[in-house]
Amino acid sequence: MVEIFCSSEEMSFLKHLQHDVESYFSVLQLSRSATFSEIFSYTACRQVLQLFLAIIFFHVSEYILAISFHGRSNVTLRSLLVSKSYILAMSFALLEYCLEVYFSPGLKEHWWISNFGLAMLVIGEVMRKMAIITAGRAFTHLIKIYHEDHHQLVTSGVYSFVRHPGYCGFFIWSIGSQIMLCNPISTVAFAVVVWNFFARRIPYEEFFLRQFFGSEYDEYARRVSSGIPFVK
Fold first, then answer.
1. Least confident of 21-25, 174-178, 183-187
2. 30-56, pLDDT tens digit by residue?
3. 193 within 8 A of 89, measured Cβ to Cβ
4. pLDDT one-digit tens code per residue, 146-172
5. Where are the domains of the chain?
6. Which of 125, 141, 182, 206 is deepest in the core (most CB within 10 A)?
7. 175, 194 Cβ separation under 8 angstroms
8. Nearest-angstrom CA–CA distance, 32 and 193
9. Phi-psi region of 201 (alpha: psi -120 to 50; beta: other; left: phi over 0)
10. C-alpha angle 152/171/109, rounded to 5°?
11. Which residues are CB-contacts of 156 (< 8 A; sequence separation ≥ 6)?
12. Using an 8 Å Cβ cutoff, are 96 and 162 in contact?
């Protein structure tokens, strides 16, 4: 009888233990699902939506402005500024975002960082569009290696503060897009890649600008910065 009583007591204990464990994991799973669902429905959707809207506006407006200044017959789809490297970079950024949302959703909840990135994105967009509008027909997406009659040295407006406001604007815009997503890896990667691109492009472009405008451009370059950090 003693052995039977002990066995029943053990069985009862094991059943209670099993019930408690199942209840614990059930609550844990529901809590995790609720938390993930809440973050995905608000944080991720808002931040990703902001990114897609920014990308669409940036590229469509570039194309429209190019047509308005140069005419449809002189503008190709290259004025959308969408390249394989660009698509790869944005795909990497979205991959990082998705992984961090799943494994570390709290990282995306730093709204003061995200909003700061959004502000950078807007500032960069405004600066670039001001550069295009101010330069008018003198602004092209391809570097001019031959001087044309309508190509004049623009030093007014936003160009009085930086020599390459279009590049500066895109530099701020690209980094801001990743800060807005709270993507630490992509923020650093975008900053390095975009900086390297402009660090090579600006000297190449300015070689031709000096050929076109001579001492006038030399004087302008001496008193106005390039707009890209550490690029003279």
1. 21-25
2. 445 445 554 555 788 899 999 999 999
3. yes
4. 777 767 899 999 999 999 999 999 999
5. 45-223
6. 182
7. yes
8. 37
9. alpha
10. 150
11. 134
12. no
